[in-house]
């Protein structure tokens, strides 16, 4: 069927396009303008037309997400029948789709939990989705590095983990930090040593950076640095960036590292100020680097992380006072409830720093909008965040409503920049798609997947981006006038994206023997077979870089 989206303001930064025009669709793909009479015309007069939104970092599936729902069932409560961002996969899919998003990635999938995570991801409707395989604290990898095995051996182990978990990329969380925590570490930096292995965090990071590059994984190594949320955490991010030595690297939830210590001699007791200018300047100097924000949103949430060292320390600030910390194999993990208070000086400064990072960014396509859902707050806050980025007057009113420290310790009040629609599309569409190596989305050029969001152009950008006028997934309408179309085949649309990566047979045999010895179960017990999804074609292979 040939479809024409007619008369909208088409915004596609990859094509230098921001003008009134049409978008043509056939067989689930964007096609060139046609002389034929369309079978269907969607009137987009007075609307902004963009590619579907792409989410690179949102905790939407996996063991810690399930535990968080059990720990805080009250967080998932809402009006009867209303979807909730802290609720089920069904709710997650509906809420993203309403906002015009069509792809979302779970950034923390330990290989030992991959099957459970993938089963949950497959239950999220309306979206394409994927997961990042977590390595960097697991015994087998650290053992290879300790024994100074070859780069090829490390590469083969990484490939095997990605292939077995059917992941879209690789993430490292405080490399070596979880293991060091089990030996009593309370703070862990790049050149600190994991006691049980005699390895520094830098050595582990380098091993994974090299492996991801050698395998030509489209998505750069996704890095959660050490010392998250602490005064002086900006040093950790900058040191890690410099340690990459030009290799591609992505920094997760960078807002939580944009904290410069007010007292360098006593960083943990002296408070912090914004380091956003320093990080933005470093991003400008290092074209190999990208980051997502982890914007703080006011209200009750739960922090979810495999960074067990930071979660254990953070339990003291739990609100309400209940928490879960698991010091199991590899990363472990923790769930700590937290409330960001709009009249709280610290929360207000964190809120300001996230906006400041985006507004100072030298390249919105390398600065991706996230809230690190649910750690900084729910992903449903994106429309309000975009409103603040696009409207200086609204931003000033917001800052004035919070404690003065937010203005005094950040440069936010003095920033005049207002994001354009093109920059919004870079921040939420073309940038994340490029970052994940998804060449068929994030743009509206011929050949793109017909994942498209149509928004009524309203001065109230919060309302505009909260409920899209139309959303198409693979050319099928899944949202009409802000409501999900819940009947018919469009409801089930969406696939799980996984990297087309071959595993080395020798490393597979070696790992099978290792797992048998450690767990009493071999590699097949940790795999994600098609048979786990009966009657469904769930996975789509994404090619590696050439």
Largest sheet: 9 strands, mixed
Q: What structural class results from the helix and strand content?
A: alpha/beta
Rg over CA atoms, rounded to whole Å, is: 22 Å
Q: Roughly what percent helix?
A: 25-40%
Task: Give the overall shape, derived from the CA principal axes.
Answer: globular
Which stretches are poorly predicted, pLDDT < 50 over at least 5 residues?
A: none
Percentage of residues in DSSP E strands = 15-25%
N→C terminal distance = 33 Å
* Count of individual beta strands: 26
Q: What's the pLDDT, averaged over the residues?
A: 95
Structural description of this entry:
The protein is an alpha/beta fold. The chain contains 17 helices and 26 strands. Strands 1, 2, 3, 4, 5, 21, 22, 23 and 24 form a nine-stranded mixed sheet that branches. Strand 22 and strand 23 form a beta hairpin. The longest helix has 16 residues, at about 345-360.
Quick overview of this protein structure:
The chain is α/β, with parallel strands linked by helices. It contains 17 helices and 26 strands.
């Amino acid at each position: 069927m040939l479809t024409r989206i007619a008369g909208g303001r088409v915004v596609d930064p990859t094509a230098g396009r921001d003008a009134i025009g049409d978008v043509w669709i056939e067989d689930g793909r964007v096609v060139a303008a046609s002389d034929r009479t369309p079978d269907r015309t969607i009137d987009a007069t007075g609307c902004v037309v963009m590619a579907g939104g792409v989410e690179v970092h949102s905790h939407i599936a996996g063991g810690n997400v399930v535990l968080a729902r059990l720990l805080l069932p009250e967080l998932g409560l809402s009006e009867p029948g209303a979807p909730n961002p802290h609720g089920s996969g069904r709710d997650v899919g509906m809420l993203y789709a309403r906002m015009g998003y069509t792809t979302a990635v779970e950034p923390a999938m330990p290989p030992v939990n991959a099957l459970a995570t993938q089963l949950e991801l497959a239950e999220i409707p309306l979206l394409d989705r994927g997961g990042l395989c977590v390595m960097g604290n697991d015994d087998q990898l650290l053992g290879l590095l300790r024994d100074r095995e070859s780069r090829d051996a490390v590469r083969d182990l990484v490939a095997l983990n990605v292939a077995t978990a059917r992941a879209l990329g690789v993430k490292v969380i405080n490399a070596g930090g979880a293991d060091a925590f089990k030996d009593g570490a309370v703070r862990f930096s790049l050149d600190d040593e994991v006691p049980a292995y005699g390895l520094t965090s830098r050595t582990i990071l380098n091993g994974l950076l090299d492996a991801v590059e050698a395998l030509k994984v489209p998505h750069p190594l996704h890095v959660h640095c050490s010392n998250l949320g602490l005064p002086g955490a900006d040093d950790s991010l900058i040191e890690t960036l410099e340690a990459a030595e030009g290799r591609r690297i992505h920094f997760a939830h960078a807002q939580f590292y944009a904290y410069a210590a007010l007292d360098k001699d006593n960083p943990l007791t002296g408070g912090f100020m914004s380091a956003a200018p320093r990080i933005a300047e470093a991003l400008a100097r290092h074209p190999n680097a990208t980051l997502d924000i982890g914007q703080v949103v006011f209200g009750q949430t739960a922090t979810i992380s495999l960074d067990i060292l930071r979660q254990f320390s953070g339990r003291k600030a739990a609100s309400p006072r209940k928490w879960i910390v698991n010091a199991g194999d590899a990363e472990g993990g923790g769930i700590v409830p937290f409330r960001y208070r709009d009249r709280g000086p610290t929360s207000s400064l964190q809120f300001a720093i996230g906006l400041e990072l985006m507004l100072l960014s030298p390249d919105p396509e390398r600065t991706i909008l996230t809230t690190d859902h649910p750690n900084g707050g729910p992903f449903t806050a994106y429309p309000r965040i975009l409103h603040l980025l696009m409207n200086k007057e609204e931003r000033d009113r917001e800052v004035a409503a919070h404690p003065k420290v937010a203005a005094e310790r950040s440069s936010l009040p003095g920033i005049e920049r207002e994001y354009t629609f093109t920059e919004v599309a870079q921040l939420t569409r073309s940038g994340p798609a490029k970052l994940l190596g998804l060449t068929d989305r994030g743009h509206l050029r011929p050949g793109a997947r017909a994942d498209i969001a149509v928004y009524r152009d309203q001065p109230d950008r919060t309302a505009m981006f909260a409920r899209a006028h139309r959303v198409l997934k693979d050319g099928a309408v899944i949202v009409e006038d802000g409501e999900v179309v819940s009947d018919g085949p469009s409801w089930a649309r969406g696939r799980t994206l996984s990297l087309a990566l071959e595993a080395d047979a020798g490393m597979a045999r070696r790992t099978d023997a290792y797992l048998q010895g450690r767990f009493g179960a071999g590699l097949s017990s940790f795999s994600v077979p098609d048979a786990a999804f009966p009657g469904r074609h769930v996975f789509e292979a994404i090619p590696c870089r050439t």
